[in-house]
Amino acid sequence: MPRDWPTTSAGTPGRLPARLDVPQTARLLGFSEHDIPVLIRLRLLKPLGNPPSNGHKYFATVELERLAQDPNWLDKASRAVIQHWQSKNRCRVEPPGHGRRCRGETLATEV
User: Fold this and answer.
1) According to the model, what pLDDT value does residue 71 have?
2) pTM of the entire predicted model
3) In 31-75, at which residue ranges do the beta strands (DSSP E only) sit?
4) Is residue 20 within 8 Å of residue 59, measured between CB atoms?
């Protein structure tokens, strides 16, 4: 648990709230805040309720703690985030082509 999370008067870790927002979720899972929307889009994280795409999102702490203890999920999520950012960076540096697509572009064969 990060050092700046709630503590009791004795200095021991306190109880976390039942739901966490995006910055708190990122800190608990060890990801960057900008990785959380990627994990949501890939259905590796599910926000509580049915928030609109531009709405504030909350996550169940009990589920996040379970995921944080699951090495298989952490591996899958880490690989997904790495692949996402590699793809984004590749499209920024290299022009699309050879079957690669960049944001909003279609292949010539699809037109």
Assistant:
1) 97
2) 0.73
3) 58-60
4) yes
